[in-house]
Amino acid sequence: MSFAKKEYEFLKQIGIGPKNPGNYINGTWKATGSVISTINPANNQTIAEVVEASAKDYEEGMQACSEAAKVWVQVPAPKRGEIVRQIGDALRANLQEFGRLVSLEMGKILPEGIGEVQEVIDMCDFAVGLSRQLNGSIIPSERPNHMMLEMWNPLGIVGVITAFNFPCAVLGWNACIALVCGNCVVWKGAPTTPLVTIAMTKIVASVLEKNNLPGSIFTAFCGGAEIGEAIAKDTRIPLVSFTGSSKVGLAVQQTVNQRFGKCLLELSGNNAIIIMDDADVELAVRSVLFAAVGTAGQRCTTCRRLLVHETVYEKVLKPLADVYKQVKIGDPLEKGTLLGPLHTRTSRENFEKGIQNIKSQGGKILTGGSVIESEGNFVHPTIVEISSKAEIVKEELFAPVLYVMKFKTFEEAVEINNSVPQGLSSSIFTQNPGVMFRWIGAQGSDCGIVNVNIPTNGAEIGGAFGGEKGTGGGREAGSDSWKQYMRRSTCTINYGSELPLAQGINFG
After folding, report:
1. Phi and psi angles of residue 276, each rounded to the nearest 5 degrees, phi first
2. Residues designated catalytic
């Protein structure tokens, strides 16, 4: 087994062995489900084995988590923040090794792997401050000697289902806030990145154990769709946060809604960058490369559509095609690599099918458009000239494929930007303040993230992250996203001796 290779020795430092139980249940590691192999996408060789969850494991974990919720809710919010602070410190101590694991198992380049773990650390810091700011409101009452106020209380348990492309960051966006809000967390990581799920959970478990808290405050499962379905159906979980495709997200939402649960959805993106005629072309070209090629086009915020004003079209396309040809493709753990592999063989096959569909719908390949013959799942970053009306442009092809198209006016560019079913991220490059403010206003982009002179990706945790339409409408990380993890009560207190509404009634 390739786990014995020298380059995998670092895994031992973060608690990963050749065969790993994939569930943290009631403070112990155990699993009775099927055994799977986790694969290195750079060479399609086995890294290690993981035992997944069975239905019995799930039920045992949920029963323990339900009991732990009774304990965790009684811990004061600032004390909960202290626990999350310790989780952040434990991650800092393992940043390099953990980041290396993310790159190894997911396939993103090492700086991105380390950056993803850093994002969880940043979320821990954010949540620590938030733990002292879960503030309600005092509302003036129209009745004498009465007071109205809003109270925010924990939901109890939050279910988090994450995707392979950000195997720990999305957990951080949700869990850090859910925990300081007083909720227990049930996490199902992506089935193709179980080692990240295990390593992250070991970090959290060590902190809970050190503080003599029930381990089941944080319950984790490695498994496939059946565990995700169980979470969606479970009435013990008031809120389910799901990250993935729009198709699966819709099914999750329907299942959760049937039991009157709440959903937080982070689904597909089909993000556009608009380059106006007055744009800083050099800045725009660098930004497009970063947004379209990073993580091999497997970010939900990846730039998939490039809309260029007709007067600067050639001025943009020539340097962009040139830099695409200079991108270093290879092992994501090697220094200098800019483009790693797609995550799975299936992803590579979908890339090939996508290129065929692009050609059949009139798309012209300007550069790239083919797989790289190797043991891994490598493909050439691709630029395609195509009509904005082509059906494939409205779909999310999860690969480094960029569609380019011309426009004549700002209004036309906005119309093209808003014409797809998804509504996550968008950006415009211009020096005109009037265009900037129209772009971010009601007659501009219909996305949840609306940028000016920066790429579609690279969102900061201080702002709410999420999108509209087929992207699901959810918001995670900063701003007031914490309110989704709590229930609001409007409370009226009568501190007098009269009941104004009952005046004139004789109660005998």
Report:
1. -80, 170
2. 266
